[in-house]
Amino acid sequence: MLKTRMKRLNISRERAAAQLTAIETSIIALADEDLLDFADIFRSKPDSVLGQLALAEMKKRNIRL
């Protein structure tokens, strides 16, 4: 039973990591205007992960709201 549970947890972790990578890739692929719009949506919650990803990408591109 423990092996089955550990296997399920590992699958769940792998799936979560793959989803996070897909989200990061999607944010990176946004055009500058779309990235600014996306960052503006999450500006009210600066501690959100999506907001942090958007701000990091804006910093890389040297663009601001």
Structure characterization notes:
The chain has 65 residues and is mainly alpha-helical. It is 78% helix and 0% strand. Helix 2 packs antiparallel against helix 3 (49-61). It is elongated.
Tags for this entry?
3 helices, 78% helix
The gist of it:
With 65 residues, this protein is mainly alpha-helical.
Note the main sheet.
none
Average of the residue pLDDT scores: 93
Percent helix range: over 70%
Radius of gyration: 16 Å
Range of strand content: under 5%
Number of helices, where a helix is a run of at least 4 consecutive DSSP H or I residues: 3
- General shape: elongated
Task: Please give the alpha-carbon distance between the first and last residues.
Answer: 52 Å
| Poorly predicted spans | none
Topology of this structure?
Blueprint: H1 2-29, H2 32-41, H3 49-61
Helix pairs in contact: 2-3
